């Protein structure tokens, strides 16, 4: 029954798209009660030339069995048990520094609002392909994650140099699963990326010329020299070297 309902709705949309420019329709609100498995539901509908139409998302919520989303200017319909995108993914979102949220990973086009009110539109770097590289923000800090099981389950926000455990948010900007992956913050710039993203940044931008002294900071402030090579400042070793240098000056 659910498959039939979904097919009917999609078919109706296709027919409307093909003929909508040539035919003038009379549209009225649906006057009939709606029942799903004998249970009456309140669903907004439209009567167009004696046929009734509903919004896909409203039918998905009432009937179940599929989910509807809008990703990258594409209407998505999923019949998977776990939807490919978490809730509240329609279009760009605004992310406020220091505030928690429970919708999705940051994406290109989202607006990040810093504590001082500065607004930054997130974009992917042309060289590395990493979202937010060089923009000095950590947009995924604050994501709410489910931790534990059963009665011990609770939610907690992703913090600086922390990790998500459930993987419900999907993949980072280089296509790697974020589940159980560290989100690391550069202590000098405040910029945050997933560990896999920092690896790509290091591969693409690590200085090619050796440093001249222990603790030297690279020009982009993302690497520190430890005499054996350039270390990413956001990683544990890089932060330790920086702390050592700062306490022995």
What is the fold's blueprint, element by element?
Blueprint: H1 2-19, E1 27-29, E2 34-36, E3 39-41, E4 45-48, E5 51-54, H2 56-63, E6 67-71, E7 74-78, E8 94-96, E9 111-113, E10 119-121, E11 144-147, E12 154-157, E13 162-163, E14 182-185, E15 192-194, H3 195-205, E16 223-225, E17 230-232, H4 236-247
Parallel strand pairs: 8-9
Antiparallel strand pairs: 1-4, 2-3, 4-5, 6-7, 9-10, 11-12, 13-14, 14-15, 16-17
Keywords:
249 residues; 3-stranded mixed beta sheet; 20% helix; disordered N terminus; alpha+beta
Q: What's the gyration radius in Å?
A: 25 Å
- Helix tally? 4
- On the 0 to 100 scale, the average pLDDT is 82
Structural class: alpha+beta
- SSE pattern: HEEEEEHEEEEEEEEEEHEEH
Strand order of the largest sheet: 1-4-5
Helix content: 10-25%
Distance between the termini: 73 Å
Strand content: 15-25%
Largest sheet: 3 strands, antiparallel
Tell me the number of strands. Answer: 17
Number of domains: 3
Instruction: Give the low-pLDDT segments.
Output: 1-21, 81-89
In short:
The chain is of the alpha+beta class. 20% of the residues lie in helices and 24% in strands.
Any overview of this molecule?
It is a single chain. With 249 residues, the chain is an alpha+beta fold. The protein folds into three domains: 2-78, no CATH class; 91-200, no CATH class; 206-249, no CATH class. 20% of the residues lie in helices and 24% in strands. The chain is built from four helices and 17 strands. The strands form seven sheets. The protein has a three-stranded antiparallel beta sheet with strand order 1-4-5. It is elongated and about 80 Å long.
